[in-house]
Amino acid sequence: MDKITIKNLKLFAYHGVNPEEKENGQSFYLDIDYYLNMQRACQSDCLDDTVSYAKVVKTVRAAFCEKSHDLIEKAAQAVADTIFESFESIYKLEITLKKPEAPVKAEFDYMAVTIIRER
User: Fold this and answer.
1) Among 77, 99, 111, 118, which one has the highest count of C-beta atoms within 10 angstroms of its own C-beta?
2) Active site includes 10?
3) Does the global pTM surpass 0.70?
4) Which position among 3, 22, 98, 99 bears the catalytic label?
């Protein structure tokens, strides 16, 4: 099982249940592990034989920022759905979506959800 990791991808979006979150937006951070067979790429040294992390980032940015969701659970699922639709060689995903500015009256680094999806 081979894996490519994108760590702490910072994106600005308008997710949240509170009106001010939808109006003002905030920064989110995503950790994305995507699984695919990289044997061919390891032999060929050719970008066409893998899934470019640059293309994944572009796809994630579009999926995450184009539409507003109340729950970060739904936002993470939208990212997973779009990745699977866009890259057929990816067969498993683990996405952690962190919300460091969650409107909670407490001291914390971030609130987060992690989803694991397989085809």
Assistant:
1) 99
2) no
3) yes
4) 99
